[in-house]
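step=predict obj=Cytosolic carboxypeptidase 2 n=793
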Amino acid sequence: MFPALETELKQKILPDPYEDFMYHHLQYYGYFKAQRGSLPNSATHQHVWKNNNPRYLLSGSLGKRDDLILDPLQKEKRLWPSCLSSAVHRQMEAVNRDSLMLSSPLLKSRQLLHDEFGKVNLRLREPRGLFAFFSGRGPLQAPRWPVECEVIKENIHHIEWVPPQPEHFYQPTGSEKIPEIVGEEGGTVVYQLDSVPTEDSYFTRSRVGGKRGVIKELAVTLQGPEDNTLLFESRFESGNLQKAVRVDTYTYELTLRTDLYTRKHTQWFYFRVQNTRKDATYRFTIVNLLKPKSLYTVGMKPLFYSQLDARTHSIGWRREGDEIKYYRNNSDDGQQPLYCLTWTIQFPHDQDTCFFAHFYPYTYTDLQCYLLSVTNNPVQSQFCKLRTLCQSLAGNTVYLLTITNPARTPQEAAAKKAVVLSARVHPGESNGSWIMKGFLDFILSNSPDAQLLRDTFIFKVVPMLNPDGVIVGNYRCSLAGRDLNRHYKTILKESFPCVWHTRNMIKRLLEEREVLLYCDFHGHSRKNNIFLYGCNNNDRKFWLHERVFPLMLSKNAPDKFSFHSCNFKVQKCKEGTGRVVMWRMGILNSYTMESTFGGSTLGNKRDTHFTTEDLKSLGYHVCDTLLDFCDPDRTKFMQCLAELKALLQQEIHKKFKDTDLEGSWSDISLSDIESSTSGSDSSLSDGLPVHLLNIANELNQKKKKMYKKKKRKPLQSRKQRNIQYQKNKLMQESELTEEAPSQANGRDRGTSLDPSEMTTLMLTKNKERMQMYVQGNLHPPATNHLSGVGHSP
């Protein structure tokens, strides 16, 4: 007999029926391929599993976080020999299970809740997650990288810090230097990534730690303590720098890496420099930016981080830079215009390790650490349930949070409306994650307002829609090489799993209850402040209602949120965005929240940069505005609606100055008076990659064939057949009646016949038909044996 089977048959402990069912269910559908003893959430076997499976240990990529997790994509060796058929497996397991059930006197399901007296309370426990999440020890799922990517083993971590004083915009002097780009020919390459996947290739597979083998040292080797060459590095989570060229002693030209499997989208940068000198003025110039307009032209500064300052003074990210200039690169290759960003800086310490970034980084590991703290909190975990929405293209978990207080009755649960929030569909827009963090901090708190919101709504939250892009340091795309926010209508589930499953989740949610609001958090690189893009409603019953929430939000956050920057026009090129797709699915209040990479031009924060605390506070204001928006006292709502009508009337009179619109102004289409969202950071859809076109065409052909299939006509009842026969007979008689007058009596068409004439006519016609029948030119009427009614041929 097989040793493994002997061990299982000798067990005296009855397996939990729920775990037994889930084991077979997940194994059948291919979601779980591990051994039976390593079932997720199995308290009985978890200690043995962790100690006996060293392959699941996380190594240097997470530093001290050497916790365990089951990789759902890692194939496990089968327990049974290959020569034994699956039918025999199931039969032997069934015998084993049945014998244990019959011999156990203490058979009891652990899924029914019991009261303090031991009586069964007919309520099921909360369903368990399909994949292992976080236990008390705190396992984290190690990020999975494309196999082309080299990843250093160091753990990059930054402290959170809020500057004590406002960080003002840079004020251009007009004398900023525009350095000439010399490239490799006039300088020395001191850092360069070996292989970067472009649009000529496509994603195939991933693994924890990225590329196999020894990690190369890409930075130059210092010749001694006097060598002051900077050492660059970006092969860490969310990092982006492809090449660094030393032009002069303290001058460097930097080239950003495009989004993987594309040749576009260079905006996000995040890299490390070492071997700094304190009293020197360094100049950095990024030479391959793609956007003609940027907030760097109106005072935005890059972000800077010093590890020595963080360690000794607890100072984190801060805005630094002087002589900042954004300009066109005149030495471009002619294919597309390139732009440069240049700035100077003095490092605060010698031999320091420093970082530069486009905005405050927020990585996939940062998210997992936050979710770990929530699941380990005994209070928050009662009303915040963490589930897997799906696995990304690289196999990273896309998390879904369901936040609501338990309802006291089924009627109360059914009456709750839903609110759906998401962030980081564009991985380089990390400001969306900071707003999401502020929202989660508040909604999970013990504040009375937070408790009221949890009593009123069910929140569905996807905090990071594009974890693959966040991990590899993309600005806009997923590993499919496309902007996910143009593919919410996709039918390619396997190629765009994150947005496909998000749309499907919301579709199922709409079948259960009303979704009051959908909002997707983004970042904006060309406009200051925070604002919303919505969708104009054509239903006159809800005219302007979609603008009430943004107006309320502008009143609750007047120094951050700009209502005048909001736009509600639906353009054809935006039909694939989450905002428009959810609106067409029936969500009236469907928004994209745009948060600037720069700062505010409003109120007390005018001309200052936003900090992470500013963005987190906006997450709180979203909650506060929800309470105002749904207040049973509709006074605020109606006041905002009246204010919106007055504002709109002013806009109409400005646009149509010479036209008398009194009494008809409300009939004008809102699209006629509203500009497009051309100020948006949105990119046009590039269509599908070449390797996906055939798959999409095949699916579309199958879809068309399904629609073309004709439905069989349903069988008619006897009564329906008799009625149809009588109608046909009357129609034939009426046709004969119209022909008869002119032929038989010479009367004009349309002249009516008296009853005697009609009888004569009918007898004549019947006589003619009988003669034709005798001559063999006419067949007798058939008889319907089902109804007993004769039918004419």
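step=describe
The two ends are 78 Å apart (CA to CA).
step=end
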